[in-house]
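Support request from a user on the community tier.

User writes: "When I paste my structure tokens into the form, the page sometimes reloads and wipes my input. The last time it worked, I copied everything first. Here is what I submitted, just in case something in the input itself triggers the reload:"
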């Protein structure tokens, strides 16, 4: 099975595999709770396995090109670090204030910037791929400093938060895989060339997903008894998260059109608004918050196969770039 086939398999069955990871974790945690708690020692390993492959595909040097395209870059930062957290916080006040574990999950998602996958989506939609690369790299770097501060401000009344410990954890979770991934990419290109890297790149997301399934399994196993005791509350997850994405997309499309951005730039920024780095949010949830927070993040509609349809439908309506997408879709 070649890299493309592996990638297609994981993309097609991602939600099924996530569901299986949750079910398996709950089953193990319910039947062998002591064993489930001992799985904690594997968390850091699975976090690295989840984040490292994703970082290999990010070109950190693209950050230095940001100054050449100030307007869309500025809008992307405003959405990712100001408007998105505010939307998440308002939804918490409206629907989740009595469910602190779920509320923190939504806030984590809201303060987390875009993931590397938005570059591929932007390319598929005939948007500005170079701009998407800059947004991803710059947002990820800035999030080392913004996430601990923003989550402390928004979630301090819900759960106890040690801002300094979270800053250290965020630095570790982002910086170590980012540096390791950047070195790996440079070595592959240096000794094998861009063609070799292009051949390896499709298998990176499946490798990241293996870590994702592992962290979901471990954390749900550790919190299985609590998950079982409040299983009905999980039905709050889907509608609140769907509304979170819809509000963001609607704001992005309307504001960016009025701001006068070109169609290709609008596509890049809109995908950057919607393509949240769920792996990073899960990593932080696994380190600092409860298994219920992890479960909510694992059951939200923004994974590539589920959120993709919503993104495509909305981006298709924004202008010239959207016309190209309609022709291809």
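"...and here is what came back when it finally went through:"
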């Amino acid at each position: 099975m070649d890299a493309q086939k592996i990638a297609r398999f994981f993309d097609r069955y991602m939600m099924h595999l996530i569901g299986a990871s949750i079910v398996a974790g709950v089953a193990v945690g319910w039947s062998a709770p002591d064993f489930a708690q001992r799985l904690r020692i594997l968390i850091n390993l699975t976090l690295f396995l989840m984040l490292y492959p994703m970082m290999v595909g990010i070109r950190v040097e693209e950050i230095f090109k940001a100054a050449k395209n100030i307007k869309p870059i500025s809008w992307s930062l405003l959405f990712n670090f100001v408007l998105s957290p505010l939307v998440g916080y308002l939804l918490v006040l409206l629907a989740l204030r009595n469910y602190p574990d779920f509320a923190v999950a939504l806030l984590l998602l809201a303060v987390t910037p875009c993931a590397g996958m938005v570059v591929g989506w932007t390319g598929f939609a005939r948007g500005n791929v170079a701009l998407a690369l800059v947004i991803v790299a710059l947002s990820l770097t800035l999030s080392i400093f913004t996430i601990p501060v923003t989550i402390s401000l928004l979630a301090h009344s819900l759960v106890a938060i040690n801002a300094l410990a979270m800053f250290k954890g965020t630095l570790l979770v982002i910086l170590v895989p980012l540096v390791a991934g950047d070195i790996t990419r440079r070595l592959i290109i240096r000794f094998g060339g861009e063609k070799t890297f292009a051949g390896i790149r499709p298998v990176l997301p499946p490798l990241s997903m293996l870590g994702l399934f592992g962290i979901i399994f471990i954390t749900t196993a550790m919190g299985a008894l609590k998950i079982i005791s409040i299983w009905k509350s999980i039905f709050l997850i889907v509608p609140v998260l769907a509304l979170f994405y819809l509000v963001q997309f609607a704001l992005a499309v309307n504001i960016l059109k009025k701001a006068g951005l070109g169609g290709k730039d609008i596509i890049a920024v809109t995908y950057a608004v919607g393509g949240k780095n769920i792996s990073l949010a899960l990593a932080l949830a696994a380190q600092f918050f409860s298994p219920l927070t992890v479960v909510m993040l694992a059951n939200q509609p923004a994974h590539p196969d589920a959120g993709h349809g919503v993104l495509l439908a909305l981006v298709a309506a924004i202008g010239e770039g959207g016309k190209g997408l309609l022709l291809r879709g």
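Agent notes: The reload is a front-end session timeout and is unrelated to the input. The chain has 17 helices and no strands. The chain has a mean pLDDT of 78. Escalated to web team.
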